[in-house]
Amino acid sequence: MTGFDLGRVGYTLDEFFLESTATRYEPAGPLGAGGHWQVTPAGQAPFVTRLVVCRPSDPGAYTGTVILEWLNVTGGFDAPAHWMLTHRQVIRAGWAWVGVSAQRAGIEGGSIFEAAGEEPGPGSRRAMVLPALKASDPGRYGALHHPGDAFSFDIFAQAARAVRGGGVLGPRPVQCLLASGQSQSAIHLVSYINAVAPKVPPEAACDGYLIGSRTGFAAPLTGWDGRIRTEGPDGARVRADGRAPVLTVQTESDVTGVLAGVTARQPDSSRFRWWEIAGTAHADTYLLGAAVSDSGELPPAELARLMAPTAEPMGIPCPVPVNSGPQHHYVAQAALAHLDRWARGGPPPPSSPRLETDPDDPMRLITDDAGIARGGIRTGWVDVPVAALSGLTPPGATGVGTLLGSTRVFDATELARRYPAGPAQYAAAFRDATARAAAAGFVLDQDVEEIIAVATAAYPAP
After folding, report:
1. What is the mean pLDDT of the chain?
2. Which residues are registered as beta bridge partners of 47?
3. CA 454, 456, 457 angle in degrees (round to 5)?
4. pTM of the prediction?
5. How far is CA 83 from CA 46, 92, 121, 417, 444, in A?
6. Strand 96-100 versus strand 39-56 pairing type
7. Which of 440, 439, 446, 257 has its CA nearest to residue 352?
8. Confidence band (pLDDT; 50, 70, 90) for 83?
9. Would you say residue 113 has pLDDT above 70?
C-alpha cells in the first residue's frame, strides 16, 4: 500500500478474516443497458476472505467516513488501485479505508492476461506481478476459501455489513460508507449497483459509489475472467434511482481507448455524475511510480522526479514514454471529497464537460495540433502544457502498455514559442489554469499550491 510508514502520518494497519456463507445471483429477466437488472438468488457457498483496514491511530482524528474498496485482481493479486490514487485525501481527511479481497484471483491467483491466453513479453508484466495471498504466505492465508466470483458481489455486501456492524472499526461510528473500485473492480461495482445493491439490507448498504476507469460493459454476474466480454449489452449504464449517489471518473484510455467506455456514457442526474479528464491515462507515472512514496511530506521537486517521463515504468518496456501527468490523482481526490459531501446530504459534484469525440466516429478523440484532447475536465497540464499527454494507445504498445498512454515532451523551439519569457511565464499561466480548475471544483483548494510547485519543478531543462 505504501513505501512509507503509515504510523508517521498517524495511521494503523490491521487485517481481519471474514467467514460466512455467500449468495450468488442469476438474471430474472433481460439485463438491459439502462441498468435496472432483476436478479434472483441461485445458490449459496461458504467463504473465508480477508479485509485490510487502515484507520487513524487516534480515535479522535477519525471523522466518520469509511472508503470500502473492491481490491483489483487484474494482475492475479490484490492491488489497492484506488487507494494508490487517493490515499492522500483519505489520510488528511481523517477517514478510514477498508480493502476487500472480493474476488477469487486475489486469494488463489490467475491474472486476466493468463485467462485470455496472452503470453507475457520479455520482462513485461512480470515486473508488476506479486503472488496471490495463498502463495505469498501459505501459513497465514491457507485457511482462506473463495467459491468463485459469482459470489463476489455478496461477499462485498457482507464486508460492508461487517464495517457497519463494528466488527473491524470497533466503537468508531460509520457515518458515511463509500464504495470504490478501479478498472476491473469498477465494472464489478457497476453490476453490484445494478443488480445486488437494491437487495441488501440497510445494515449492509453503502452511502455512495465511486467508479473509476470502467469499461463500456459491466461484469457478468458470474464474474469477469478476461475472456467473457459482456453481461447484457455493451454500453451498460448505472442505475441512478437508488438512495446512494454514484460518481464515475474516466480517463482518455477509459473513454475512447481500449476500454471503450464511451458506449456507457450517460447524462448527469440528481444521483449520478460522469467525469472525463483530459490528458489522462488508465495508469500513469504517478500511479506506477510516485504514489507508493507520496506521504504528503515529499518536496515538490521529488514528486516531480518520481513522475518524470519514462518508457519503462516498473520495468515494463513500452514503445514511448508513458503518460506522466498527475492530474488523474488530483482530480480523483476532488471526486472523493465531493462524493463524501454529496452522500452526507450536501450539494452534488459539478458536472464535467465531455471529451470531444468525432460525431461520425465516437471512438475517435478530437485533439488539437499538439495531440492534446479537447473538452473534458481541464487542468494546467493540458491548458498550459510542456508536453502532449495522452491516454490513447501508442503504436507498438501491447499488454499493460495499451493502458498507459504517452508523453511527448516539447522541444526547446516549441517551449520558446509557447512561453517566450521562459519558466516564469509558464508558472504564472499554470497558476491561472489551476485556479480555474479549483474554482470549477475539479481539484481541491488544499492541493493547489502543491500542483503549481510540482509543475514548476518539472519544467523541462534547456
Report:
1. 93
2. 20
3. 65
4. 0.95
5. 28, 13, 28, 39, 17
6. antiparallel
7. 440
8. very high
9. no
Interstrand relation of 272-276 and 246-250 (parallel, antiparallel or unpaired): parallel
Grid cell for residue 288: 506506477
Those residues whose C-beta lies under 8 Å from the C-beta of residue 123, and which sit 6 or more positions away, are 315, 316, 317
Question: Which grid cell sits at 123?
Answer: 520482462
Q: How far is Cα 133 from Cα 63, in angstroms, rounded to an integer?
A: 31
- What is the tens place of the pLDDT at every residue in 392-406? 999 999 988 999 999
CB 224 within 8 A of CB 188: yes
**Beta carbons of 432 and 282 less than 8 angstroms apart:** no
Compute φ and ψ for 18, nearest 5 degrees. Answer: -120, 120
DSSP string across 15-34: EEEEEEEEEEEEESS---TT
The SS3 of residue 150 is helix
DSSP string, 387-416: EEEE-SPPTT--GGGGGS-EEEE--HHHHH
The beta-carbon contacts of 227-233 under 8 Å, at least 24 apart in sequence, are 227/115, 227/116, 231/31, 231/191, 232/30, 232/31, 232/32, 232/33, 232/37, 233/31, 233/32, 233/33
Grid cell for residue 382 = 493540458
Provide the strand spans (E) within 31-137. 39-56, 65-70, 96-100
C-alpha neighbours within 13 Å on the C-beta side of residue 4? 18
